[in-house]
Amino acid sequence: MPPRIAITPCRKMPDYVESVRLAGGDPWELVCAADPAEAVVRSCAGLLLTGGADVAPERYGEARHATVTDVDTARDEYEMALVTAAIAADLPILAICRGLQVMNVAAGGSLIQDIPSHVGTGVAHQVSDPKDVIAHDITVLPGTRLAGMMGKAVAGGRLAVNSRHHQSVRRLASGFVITAEAPDGVVEAIERPSSRFCVGVQWHPENFVASRTFLPLFAGLVAAAQP
């Protein structure tokens, strides 16, 4: 029986659902009001944290930057509870874009609220159309779970990715390591070595569902979720 993978609610679900299905998992689209965090963690074999709105800076003790306008506080609270419970239960987690940011904040880290204001505009981090267009390369650290999953796709330590975000990791949560960076130093991937599987990526691998370029990330989650 395919392992059940819980997927957090977002506005653009189809690519996430199909990516999990292609990787051999059984997608479960969560409903915040109907699926309490603790019950979800007890009822699934893996957790996929999706992209979406900015994480409220109040969650990591900062006042809001002027660019932080699209915030869903109820979703923040729900997903942080999911992360906390999932890490405690050593449930496999794949976190994408906002999902990476939620995971980092839930575990005690903080975020750069606006990359153009705090880092600069030398690297394009918000390239929206088409959704699978390559925005820039990232440098992937050898010996990491990310490097292992992507294998030969990491040519010369570099990987080409799409990009749609203006926030990123500032203070890394305790227990996590950085596994990839953009040319401007923006964190592009993190993982938690002591967990069975706990990987976050800042780009949108689900958007490559047709080409299956990043299917190994979803396959890694599903494999870790096997009994």
Explained architecture:
This protein has 227 residues and is α/β, with parallel strands linked by helices. It has one domain (4-224): Rossmann fold. 27% of the residues lie in helices and 21% in strands. The chain is built from 7 helices and 13 strands. β11 and β12 (187-191) form a beta hairpin. The model has no long low-confidence stretch (mean pLDDT 97).
Tell me the layout of helices and strands.
Elements lengths: L3 E4 L6 H9 L3 E4 L7 H7 L2 E4 L23 H16 L4 E4 L1 H9 L4 E2 L2 H4 L7 E2 L8 E5 L4 H6 L7 E4 L1 E2 L3 E2 L7 E5 L5 E5 L6 E4 L13 H10 L3
Parallel strand pairs: 1-2, 1-3, 3-4, 4-13
Antiparallel strand pairs: 5-10, 6-9, 7-8, 7-11, 11-12, 12-13
Tally of discrete structural domains = 1
Look at the structure and name the CATH superfamily: Class I glutamine amidotransferase (GATase) domain
What sequence of helices (H) and strands (E) makes up the elements?
A: EHEHEHEHEHEEHEEEEEEH
Helix content: 25-40%
> Uncertain runs with pLDDT below 50, 5 residues or more?
none
Q: What average pLDDT do the residues reach?
A: 97
Largest beta-sheet characterization:
9 strands, mixed
Total strands: 13
Class in CATH?
A: Alpha Beta
Order of the strands making up the biggest sheet: 2-1-3-4-13-12-11-7-8
Number of helices: 7
Short description:
This protein has one domain: Rossmann fold (3-Layer(aba) Sandwich), CATH 3.40.50. It contains 7 helices and 13 strands.
